[in-house]
Specification:
- It is a single chain.
- By secondary structure, the chain is of the alpha+beta class.
- Helix content is 35%, strand content 14%.
- The protein has a two-stranded antiparallel sheet with strand order 1-2.
- Strand 1 and strand 2 form a beta hairpin.
- Helix 1 crosses helix 2.
- The chain starts with 11 loop residues before the first helix and ends in a 20-residue tail after the last helix.
- The relative contact order is 0.16.
C-alpha cells in the first residue's frame, strides 16, 4: 500500500526543510509545556531535531519508508 499522493502536497519533513532553506532562524514553533516552560524552535532547529530522531530510529532498526507510531501527550515539554 502506498500513501495517497496529492498534487502539490508535501510531507512534514519537506515543509520543515523548505522553511529551513528559506529562513533557517525563523521561529517555527513556540509552545508552553505543562510545567510552564517555553519551548521555542527555529526551522533549522526543528530539522536538526527531526534528523536526530530519524537517526536514533534507524539505530533501532527502523528502515526508511517503514512506519512507526508514537504516543505523546498534547504538550510541548519533555517532562
Amino acid at each position: 500500500m502506498t500513501p495517497l499522493q496529492l498534487p502539490g502536497a508535501a510531507t512534514v519533513p519537506e515543509l520543515l526543510r523548505n522553511g529551513a532553506r528559506r529562513d533557517p532562524d525563523q521561529l517555527a514553533l513556540s509552545a508552553r509545556s505543562v510545567s510552564g516552560a517555553r519551548l521555542r524552535r527555529s526551522y533549522a532547529g526543528l530539522v536538526r531535531d527531526m534528523d536526530r530522531a530519524a537517526a536514533e530510529l534507524a539505530e533501532l532498526g527502523l528502515a526508511a519508508g517503514e512506519r512507526a507510531a508514537t504516543f505523546l501527550t498534547n504538550d510541548a515539554g519533555y517532562e
